[in-house]
Write a structure and sequence with these properties.
Elements (H helix, E strand, L loop, with lengths): L1 E7 L2 E6 L9 E10 L2 H9 L20 E2 L3 E9 L11 E4 L2 E2 L20 E2 L12 E5 L3 E4 L5 H4 L2 H13 L8 E5 L3 H12 L3 E5 L3 H9 L5 E3 L6 H8 L5 E6 L4 H10 E9 L11 H6 L3 E4 L7 H9 L9 E6 L3 H11 L6 E5 L11
Parallel strand pairs: 11-12, 11-14, 12-13, 14-15, 15-16, 17-18
Antiparallel strand pairs: 1-2, 1-4, 3-5, 3-9, 3-18, 5-6, 6-10, 7-8
Helix pairs in contact: 3-4, 3-9, 6-7
Length: about 375
């Protein structure tokens, strides 16, 4: 079967590899669509980071490079390994793409398996990936979805779950809450979508006019402001009767954005850092102390996929506006990575398929 394989920095190859078979307790999935994540871009430009090297295997998967990429994907059940009785061939599914040690409690009440030692992701540290025709995944990580939900939109449930968990880390949305999101990239937009679905008034701060318009057109933001045109903290105060935002989400890994959130948050407000920082940040501790700001981190998701799926299936979140491109896996680097690296203002989520019979029209 065809697959996109990560060999090393700036070295991703489209190759023919052996098709997997489902072992006991596994589900074989025919992949429909797979999104390109910012993490994939970092691996391509700066890696290996999450991916193993050629000489150092991942401690849980045991795999070395090359590995198949892709962790944001949807598909159809193609076969069931022995012991899997609660799914059927033909079911539509998405995957919570974790690689976690067998000794870790990943049950429905766990709130910390995503923080376990050596945690990593399918499609980065091994065990196949969504940028392939098929993948075998342990039943625990497979989530059934309604066949009424288009499979292209379903591929965005994984990054949407990141936004869901970020809002959960903030304590959820209370009636009348006003939330400020710093950055309207994919995660910023999807975090805003969760906030809107839960009843918040959402303000987005973003320098790109195209991204601000996407936030407004998709309905995930009530206000989209440019920090190069207005004083964001002052505008937030005007919109909150001088109080400041109740919740704020840092989705850029840019220090000035974090500083802005501290100026715009209300006393005793909550700031959640969603982005991955590749370098140390500076922080004015007096702002944190004198306003009693609650600064929190968030990473990925933990038992959030079921509730995230419900939000989408109920119609409270429409994922279609965020699909800005569809390509064949053969064009992964030239049309996918190149666009997101060099023209990222023009794209939110580019989806990839190995199936040439699928329509690449984003209106479908």
């Amino acid at each position: 079967m065809k697959a996109a394989r990560f060999y090393d920095r700036n070295d991703i190859r489209i190759e023919e590899i052996e098709e997997p078979a489902p072992a006991e307790g596994e589900v074989l999935i025919s992949v429909a669509w797979c999104g390109i994540c910012g993490t994939d871009l970092h691996e391509y430009l700066e890696g290996p980071i999450f991916c193993p090297t050629h000489t150092t295997p991942h401690p849980i998967s045991g795999e070395t490079a090359p590995v198949t990429l892709g962790h944001e994907f949807s598909g159809v059940v193609a076969a069931l390994g022995s012991g899997v009785t609660d799914l059927e061939v033909g079911d539509h599914v998405v995957v919570e793409p974790y690689i976690i040690d067998e000794s870790v409690d990943t049950g429905p009440t766990s709130k910390d398996y995503h923080l376990s030692e050596n945690m990593n992701f399918i499609g980065l540290a091994g065990r196949g990936g969504g940028l392939a025709e098929k993948i075998a995944v342990k039943r625990r990580w497979v989530h059934k979805i309604s066949k009424d939900l288009p499979l292209d939109e379903a591929a965005l449930i994984e990054p949407l779950s990141v936004g869901y968990h970020a809002v959960e880390r903030a304590g959820g949305v209370k009636e009348g809450d006003i939330a400020l999101v710093g950055g309207a990239g994919p995660i910023g937009l999807l975090t805003a979508a969760v906030l809107k679905a839960q009843g918040a008034t959402v303000i987005i701060s973003e320098t790109s006019s195209l991204r601000r318009q996407k936030a407004l057109d998709s309905g995930v933001a009530d206000y989209a402001l440019s920090p190069t045109e207005v004083d964001i903290p002052e505008e937030v105060k005007k919109l909150t009767n001088g109080k400041g935002a109740d919740l704020a989400f840092e989705c850029t890994s840019v220090n000035v954005v974090l500083d802005t959130l501290f100026d715009a948050i209300k006393p005793q407000g909550v700031i959640v850092v969603v982005s991955i920082w590749g370098k140390p940040a500076s922080l004015d501790m007096q702002k944190l102390v004198l306003k009693e700001v609650d600064l929190r981190g968030t990473i990925a998701y933990v038992n959030n996929h079921p509730e995230t799926i419900k939000l989408v299936e109920s119609g409270k979140i429409n994922l279609k506006p965020f699909i800005t491109g569809k390509i064949l896996v053969d064009n992964l680097v030239d049309e996918g990575f190149d666009t997101l690296i060099n023209r990222n203002e023009t794209a939110v989520k580019i989806l990839v398929t190995t199936n040439p019979s699928f329509s690449l029209d984003i209106s479908n």
